Task: inverse folding
């Protein structure tokens, strides 16, 4: 279940996130380090770092790896999304983030002109 910024706005913040049935994986989307810190308290399976800078990504990893949050079993995985392209993906991967989503693979590809002729 992906919890996005609109869900958080509708529920008046992180203190009243939507309830999710047991057994479902939870991912919370965040756009800055303050939101990231709030999201970590809920021990989600994943946190999506949306449109964050390299420095913010590194800091999020440092915070997640700090002893207070190391006790999450399994530990929260971090996904980077937004602003990822073929030019910066290596730099993002070098941060040690767990997952990278790259929309350029689907929304920026050029269509192939193909046809099938039957005789």
Result:
């Amino acid at each position: 279940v992906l919890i996005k910024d609109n869900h958080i706005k509708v529920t008046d913040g992180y203190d009243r996130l939507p309830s999710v049935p047991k057994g479902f994986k939870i991912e919370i989307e965040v756009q800055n380090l303050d939101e990231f810190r709030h999201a970590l308290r809920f021990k989600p399976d994943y946190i999506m770092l949306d449109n964050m800078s390299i420095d913010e990504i590194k800091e999020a990893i440092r915070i997640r790896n700090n002893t207070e949050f190391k006790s999450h079993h399994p530990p929260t995985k971090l996904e980077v999304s937004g602003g990822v392209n073929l030019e910066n993906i290596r730099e993002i991967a070098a941060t040690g983030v767990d997952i990278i989503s790259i929309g350029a693979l689907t929304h920026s590809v050029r269509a192939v002109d193909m046809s099938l002729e039957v005789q």
Observations:
- Residues 2-107 form a domain with the TIM Barrel fold (CATH 3.20.20.70).
- The chain has a mean pLDDT of 84.
